[in-house]
Amino acid sequence: MVQTQRHWPLHAGLLTIWFVASFGLVFYARDLQMLVAGWPVAFWFAAQGALLVFVAIVVYFAWAANRREGSDADFDQRTFKLQTRKYHRRFFALVIGILLLILGLALAERWGLHKAWIASIFLTATLVVYSVIGVYGRTSDAAEYYVAGRRIPGLYNGMATAADWMSAASFISLAGGLYLQGFSGSGGQPGGLAYIMGWTGGFCLVALLVAPYLRRMDLYTIPDYFALRYGGRWPRLIASLAAVVVSFTYVVAQIYGVGLITSRITGVHFEIGILLGLGGVLVCSFLGGMRAVTWTQAVQYWVMILAFLLPVSWLAYKQVGNPLAPLAYGQQLQKIAVLEKSLVDSPVEKEVIAEFAFRAEVLDRKLLNVEQSLQVDRQELRAKLNALGAKADDEVANRLRRELAALPRDVAIARERWSQMAEEYRERARPLGGMAPHTLPFEGDPSGSAEERQKFQTSRLNFLALMFCLMVGTAGLPHLLTRYYTTPTVAETRSSVAWSLVFIALLYVSAPALAVLVKYEVMAHLVGQPFDALPVWMAQWSHDPTLLSFSDVNNDGILQFAELKIGPDLVMLASPEISGLPYVVSVLVAAGGLAAALSTADGLLLTIGNALAHDVYFEGDNSKAQSMRRVMWSKFALLVVALMAAYVAAQRPAGILYLVAASFSLAGAAFVPAMVLGIFWPGTTRVGAIGGMLTGLAVTVYYLLINQVGVRQVFGLVGNGLWLGIQPVSAGIFGVTAGLAATALLSLVSNPEPRQSSG
After folding, report:
1. Which of 189, 310, 381, 722 is at 20 to 30 A from 325, Cα to Cα?
2. Helix 656-680 vs helix 234-266: angle between axes, to the nearest 10 degrees?
3. Domain boundary residue among 417, 440, 463?
4. Number of domains in the chain
């Protein structure tokens, strides 16, 4: 097998720049608060500057490495260029068709076409396009099904990878997470700009350490690498099961997003929305595998990016007169800082905060004796209802009946519900509803009391840990790495990674802008308005209290900031209404969110099906008949797993952002140590790889589970169970470290097996 050249000085130099631009500058973010051109330096760099550095790294690496290695002598460049031109013509026509559809529906809305028809036409049209591509790309050929025949140009694979990558978490939840968490989050919600830096900085690791070397080996799946590099059945089997666990956790979040969007637009129940969206997923991935999924995802990318950029550009133009939101929103940061201070000092805001604190105290007292408190509540409501006598049919009586019916059925449910409510009230009893000042890096004060200094250190450590997990997890995600098997050459793979990050950057530099612009809109134009003058969209979205809820807590008839609770998924989904854009843009945003969830779900379900059929049941027979049989088993496994994921998503598990972040920890711990060491260190052994993968997975899963409230209650554990104060969402930092140490130590003490070159 031909050995891929390793450019050690180039690798070392670029990785040093990557480390300084991420961990180095973030570590000193609190010292970089000076304003330059109206921007706080640390905030600008974390929101945009680091991403630009990461793009420069992968682009320069692709150019420099490809220039040194030259072109593959066996590769027919002329035929490839002719085929690529044909792709350009077809794709350009398709994108123009989408734009014309949006324009046509906008005109139809202006002429009076009903909203229901606009939504139905647009969503149906996009799903039909995806389905036609899926049907047209149907195949039973192994190379076509698993890796699209290895003939996808880097540009289009970059689009497909960007769509595959920008899941429901990126499209739906990222801007909302930044709205709530600001620079770095607070308390039990670390994050903020760590998501931007982590999810983009990881592509530097993919480009420099993983993708070109895996592509050289002409594989179908990530477990194929472990089988070829280490030999034997166990490395492949463990890698396969890890791929299933990682991808299943991730795909549940995507299908949850599918249900959320479909039910919102069509009006059907959440569970029905899941099944409707799932049909769109299966048409693409089930029939044509990677061949159909690649071109579907390339189309879905443009639906997504148009849906994201239109609202944020219009909102930026509306607020600051410049539609280039990433360049223009800096001036709003200073205005938000002033508004935050006025809200913290506001007497009416303090009234609301005091009421929430009182409600938390009441629930805490009830929790001292749940059974007695539940009985007293029932007796009081029944007594009030009986006291009404002949007036038992009036509005007050109906309200009392609803309150009585809403009481918990038993002690266990009461304890769980009251505990959650008390925690929520305590959170809302903090200034700004527990939200940190938007541009402040890390909680606490490095120059304050011992408690404040400790809070600062913990907050900074959580930010760095989450960023580390997202970066390393990116380099280990099976559905992402498999995309780079579809390019025709190693040089095209490097170019594809660069294109991927360029396309991703268009959304990732805009997400912080949307968060800031929406926050300013809320603080400056919603807060302080009479309840009867609030915009119509608030009443519409408040039907789902997880997205939006508000109530007149202090009974003054005016909306206070503390009385408003916005869920992270609302910020993007409601951005057209917040911006005052036509309804067709709302439908476009919904279609974009649906495309994000569908595109990632396609790739994930394909990865799971292939892992179960191609890897778990791999028999070593590469005959044509056996290959076709494995493809059929992959399709069957994909269908079964899709239905299982739909069932789990219907239970409404943890938030999208948390589920996705957890899957990154699992991927990083399971794959990256054994994979990267296997590529760059010939002394890595099979025993080391097996031990490292199992150790990394075990430590990560343990840390995720042991910090779940339900698990701690079952085992009677007290305290929070955190190590070094690091939140469970960053469990991968312990798993990756343990996996790396185990792989290295076991490799040193075990005998190496004869192996093929890692390419």
Report:
1. 189
2. 150
3. 440
4. 2
Bridge partner list, 186 = 189
Domain co-membership, 411 together with 459: no
CA distance 431 to 352: 10
Instruction: Report yes or no: 618 and 610 within 8 Å, Cβ to Cβ.
Output: no
pLDDT, position 1: 37
Helices 583-610/77-110 angle, 10° precision: 140
Q: How far is 489 from 71, CA to CA, in rounded Å?
A: 9
CA separation for the pair 249, 247 (Å, rounded): 5
Label residue 196 by pLDDT band (50, 70, 90): very high
70 lies in some domain: yes
Residue 418 has pLDDT above 90, yes or no: no
pLDDT level of residue 567 (50, 70, 90 thresholds): confident
Task: Report the CATH number at residue 507.
Answer: 1.20.1730.10
Residue tagged 């549940």 (tokens): 252
Residue 712: HSE in the Cβ half-sphere, 13 Å Cα cutoff: 12
- The first and second tokens of residue 630, run together, are 């494995």
Tokens of 255: 């299908």
Whether residue 412 is found in the same domain as residue 291: no
Same domain as 422, residue 469: no
Which of 415, 440, 465 is the last residue in one of the domains? 440
Tokens standing for residue 385 = 């209802």
CB 281 within 8 A of CB 288: no
- Return the higher-pLDDT residue of 137 and 179: 179
Its domain, for residue 127, covers 8-329+453-518+580-749
Spell out the residues 6+ positions from residue 432 whose beta carbon is closer than 8 angstroms to its own.
Answer: 340, 343, 344, 561, 562
Higher-confidence position of 119 and 346 = 346
Q: How many CB atoms lie within 10 A of CB 391?
A: 10
Verify that 305 and 163 share a domain, yes or no.
yes
667 vs 751 pLDDT, higher one: 667
Going by C-alpha positions, the residue among 490, 416, 599 that lies closest to residue 212 is: 490
Considering the domain architecture, whether residues 158 and 226 belong to the same structural domain is answered as yes
Alpha-carbon torsion (166, 171, 177, 178), positive or negative: positive
Residue 596 near residue 294, CB atoms below 8 Å: no
In single-letter form, the type of residue at position 331 comes to: Q
Residue 615 forms part of a structural domain? yes
Q: Map tokens 């992959």 to a residue.
A: 634
pTM: 0.89
Measured between alpha carbons, how far is residue 279 from residues 190, 213, 598, 601 in Å?
35, 35, 10, 11
DSSP state, 436?
P
User: Considering the domain boundaries, does residue 30 fall inside one?
Assistant: yes
Per cent of the chain over pLDDT 70 is 91
Q: Sign (positive/negative) of CA torsion 655, 164, 129, 649?
A: negative
Task: Please report which residue ranges of 231-269 form alpha helices under DSSP H.
Answer: 234-266
Helix (H) or strand (E) holding 189: strand 189-190
